[in-house]
Amino acid sequence: MRWRFVPDAVWNVKTRRRVLTLLFALLATQLGSLVSPAYACGCGAMVPDGFSRIGVQRETSVVRWDGRNEQIVMRFRVDGDAKKAAWIMPVPGRATVELGKAELFTDLGRLTVPERRTRGYFWPRDADWPFSSGSGDGVGAAMPGAGAPSVGVVGREQLGDFDVARLTATDPDALKRWLETNGFKMPDRLSAELRPYVDQKWEYVAVRLAPRDRTKALGGDLDPLRIRFDSDRLVYPMRLSRMAKTPQSLGLYVLAAHRMEPLSPIGGAAPKVAFAGTVTPQGPVAELTGSAEPVFLTAIEQEFPEPARIDGDHELRATAKDTPYRRAVYRDELMTVGGVPAWLLTVAGAAVAAIALVLVLRAARRRKARSARPLSGVA
Predict the structure, then answer these.
(1) 79-126: per-residue pLDDT in tens?
(2) Burial code of 363-372, b = ≥16 C-beta within 10 A, e = fewer?
(3) Distance from CA of residue 315 to its chain's centroid?
(4) Banded pLDDT at 5 (limits 50, 70, 90)
(5) What digits encode the pLDDT tens for the residues 296-332?
(6) Out of 30-39, 44-53, 184-193, 319-328, which region has the weakest mean confidence (pLDDT)?
(7) Residue 281 burial (CB < 10 Å; 0-12/13-18/19+)?
(8) DSSP state letters, 163-196
(9) Quick one: how far is CA 247 from the chain centroid?
(10) How large is the average pLDDT for residues 72-80?
(11) How far is residue 355's CA from residue 364's CA, in Å, rounded to a whole number?
């Protein structure tokens, strides 16, 4: 074998080239992930402008249904670097749109707050004496008109930072072209995902988010929107969230005559009830229900770890019984008697009893021994 001497300068040049090539490859990968749009929205398809990105961290909605008319007040918590974005929501009938009130979510959160309970435990744990010496407790620009004759603009409103268009469409491809004509690159899958709604002759609410401060990216809790439409069944559109690239989280408050439940998980984790009970509407809640009469409130939470598995819209029905439920949050507390741990009193009492028993047995043996001893001096 012949050894070839490579000068340090040549070796350093080659090494630097390889390192730079690797860095460029890594950088390209990261840039590719950054510019890929995140079509993430639990009720529709949220799309950023250009190559920016936006993601919906959580969607919380309030649904009011009286058997004939449905109202949805929705609020998104988003993050990303997009300064503009849009989302699309299919609705089964002609819709009206207006701004909702953020106080509505505050009031409902207060009505459904978990009950706090104390749960005692007997034996000491890691944070208790003698194991531990310490104590621990634990929008801007107007939206142009329709770009294809098979897309109709029912109406358009400027609502704060939202530019809202209410649309009809007889062709999903035409609707996709209309949206692209209005400045947004839409996913290729959108036409296919819209087909079931077009076949059922649903309509669409297209919302353009463009904050008045155009220098800031969209982030945090957006202003809620209130959408109304006629419906003889309680439905919550979810099918378009199949296009989301990240896990989705849904919080749903339902105000109706009875306790409500989803017909199926539609491809997500099993829905969980966080609250169920009759409430007396006040303030924004009474404004939404249109009355101060008691109404049944059901709070439902659901996770969608794999959005691609979503296979339909949520349809909710009344349960067999209006069984009330309130989630309980437990605070574990060491059981005490007069400020002294119960376990310590029990152990001390058992020790005293054991010592007393030993003393009693010892005394009994002594008495027995004395009684068995023969008497001296007897003739």
Answers:
(1) 666 667 777 889 999 999 999 999 999 999 999 988 877 777 777 777
(2) eeeeeeeeee
(3) 19
(4) very low
(5) 999 999 999 999 999 999 999 999 999 999 988 777 7
(6) 30-39
(7) buried
(8) EEEEEEES-HHHHHHHHHHTT----TTHHHHHHH
(9) 10
(10) 80
(11) 14
What are the counts of helices (DSSP H) followed by strands (DSSP E) for the chain? 6, 21
The answer to whether the beta carbons of residues 191 and 81 sit under 8 Å apart is no
The amino acid that residue 71 corresponds to is Q
Handedness of CA 151, 157, 159, 161 (dihedral sign): positive
Record the tokens describing residue 277, joined without a space.
């009970």
Helix/strand/coil for 102: coil
- How large is the average pLDDT for residues 153-160? 85
The Cα 215–Cα 219 span in angstroms is 12
- The residue whose two tokens read 């897309």 is 151
Three-state SS string over 251-276 comes to EEEEEECCCEEECCCCCCCCCEEEEE
* Token pair 């997500």: residue: 268
Give the residue-averaged pLDDT of 5-30: 45
Q: Is 329 helix (H, G, I), strand (E, B) or coil?
A: strand
How far is the C-alpha of 360 from the C-alpha of 365, rounded, in Å? 9
DSSP class of 347: H
CA distances from 158 to 29, 236, 337 (A): 39, 24, 65
Q: Which residues contact 188 (CB under 8 A, 6 or more apart)?
A: none
C-beta separation of 259 from 136 below 8 A: no
**CB 27, CB 45: distance < 8 Å:** no
